[in-house]
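Example record

One chain of 82 residues, shown exactly as stored in the release files.
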Amino acid sequence: MNEIFDKTPSIERYFRIKTESYISSFQKRIIGDLSKTAREQYIDFVNTYPNIEQLVKNYHIASYLGITSESLSRVRKEIARN
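Predicted structure tokens for this chain:
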């Protein structure tokens, strides 16, 4: 891969920019999640991925959000009541 990058600088630049973008997005997600409640995280998740709940198991969503399945159920019930 380094050989390709040395021979074709535009490919190296492309992958560097993609990697920087990925790292930046990842850091924003982690920092944002640390400062949000489970409810705020779930609302953001649903707004970002509106139809994913029908495709993905609840425990996967809970794991992605960094909460337990029970907490996810509680948050959903709370939102449904409001």
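Notes: Helices lie at 2-7, 9-34, 38-48, 58-65, 69-81.
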